[in-house]
Amino acid sequence: MADTIESRLEAAGVTLPEAAAPAANYVPTVTYGAILQTSGQLPMDQGALAVIGKLGAEVDVATGQKAAKLCAVNVLAQAKSALGGDLSKIGRLLKLTVFVASDPSFTEQHKVANGASDFMVEILGEKGRHARSAVGVPALPMNAAVEVEATFEIA
């Protein structure tokens, strides 16, 4: 099998879910020229929020990393939908923004964000090396622990 994004997903044991519908008045993705921007994705797994609470309180770093990876899986699902089902149209992941619901004393947002970053590099290869912001926030929608948005270049 050729070394493709789809083959890397399969090798990682990841099946992308159907892209989730927006939960409010926004669109899941916007394409502008050769740029694809996703809306923030929560750590949804099989239609349910998988990780809730604040890092440094109810959620530890390892669980936060798993949540960030789930968010990244959902980001790729949105990208796949926006690209007509063809992930090979991803030219490059330009930037991830990772929002981490954090207890005021928590300062390891960057470690949590690695859950998304490591997954994107694993699946996209060199195209997955990206700029990133890891931001601690007091709360996220539905008490999610992590939210991730992405900006892609379309090939």
UniProtKB/TrEMBL annotation:
UniProt cross-references to InterPro entries, sorted A to Z: Endoribo_LPSP/chorism_mut-like, RutC-like_sf
Pfam families on file: YjgF_endoribonc
Ranges where the Endoribonuclease L-PSP/chorismate mutase-like domain occurs: 6-147
Organism domain of life: Bacteria
Protein name: RidA family protein
